[in-house]
Design a protein that fits this description.
DUF3592 domain-containing protein, transmembrane, 4 helices, alpha+beta, five-stranded antiparallel sheet, 130 residues, membrane, transmembrane helix
Amino acid sequence: MAVYYLLGYLVPAAVFTMGVLGYSTRFTLNRRGVRVTGVRAGESWNAGIYSLIVHYTDQDGKKHRLSVAPEDVPKGGSNKIPVVYDPRKPGSALSEFELRKPGWKTMDMGFCYIGAGIAVGYTVLVLFMG
């Protein structure tokens, strides 16, 4: 019977894992990221979410595209945006402002908190109702 209770932890574990994997990208970029200056190339509306399109060039001269939230670019409307990318996977990048955000303000860590919260709630439910 205890095995069935463990199945209730699959969803919170999956949500928590999504957060950890997303946050590992930040850790990697902080550790070995290359800083370049990207150029604002336009705007995008995708699924009702407004974002800015930034183009940057890696060390090999290849161009890449990055979608950035408006709050993760310098204030003042500058067209130059600092970008940090992984030299091993140049398509993996974040704006420098987004990379500097404290962990608790990121969506990745939000997934960790949600997964942990669901697990705690489920534990309380099982202990007191089961």
